[in-house]
Amino acid sequence: MSAQQALLTILDEKIKTDRLLLPTLPEIALRVRQYADDPEVTLAQMAEIIAQDPALAARLMKLANSAFLGRAIKCNTLQQAVTRIGLSQIKHVATALALEQLFVSKYKLVQQQLDKLWADNVQVATIAVTCLKLHQQHNRACTLSSDVMTLCALVHNIGALAVIAEAERHPEVFGHPVFLHNLVEKVSPYISVKILQAWDFGAEFQSAAKNWRLCQGGVPPDYTDFIRLAAISRGYYKSAEAEIKLLQYYLQQQLITVPEFNKQPVFTELYNDIRCLFS
């Protein structure tokens, strides 16, 4: 039996018997989410929790002072940054910024795969949020949240992390990137949902992870549809005909204004502002 077939057999068996090892959220993300759900928590308390992770604190300061939030007055303290972002948003924002901590391996070949996976997720998130922001400029009735959109896009393919973690025990598999890619495509939607359920993420996250690969628009459009726009932009769909049909649907729904939405100057400018938040 080849290494690829052996890995596929192992994955199938672990999925069927619910024995696949699922990643857990970083500790700082768990703490922020726990405190954010406490109606008695104060801005000062939240700032103290976030200060325990200097990398996360630095990223939140950068976000609070970014063009993305469009504020001219600079935040000088973490509490000011938390205040600007808001307690209602900090739960998703902090989780999104802490997720990169999961994409780490001591093995070079595995780390290369994880780096690519994280970079792809960041690209999808940046494009999806850009599309949402531009859509909301012309459709004030859209109540989707950009911070939920960011996190939703970053975890839309989180199941791939578990697949790569399992493949780490079979290093020879990393010499066959096409096989690994096809394996991720096959099983990651199901695993993604399992992970998000374990993390207690809501229905919108689970739905996006399960359905984003389907080349069909939602009614009404939701977070999954903006991930699909990002997937179109990244060339993820294999059927050009289905992709064109989906683009036409999104034009009709006014999620985009032109077919080549990702080549417009207004898109590029906003995209660059958002992309900087992940650097």
TrEMBL record:
Superkingdom of the source species: Bacteria
Domain HDOD: start-end pairs: 22-215
UniProt xrefs under Pfam families: HDOD
Entry-linked PANTHER family: PTHR33525, RIBONUCLEASE Y
Name of the protein described by the UniProt record: Putative signal transduction protein
Source organism (scientific name): Alishewanella aestuarii B11
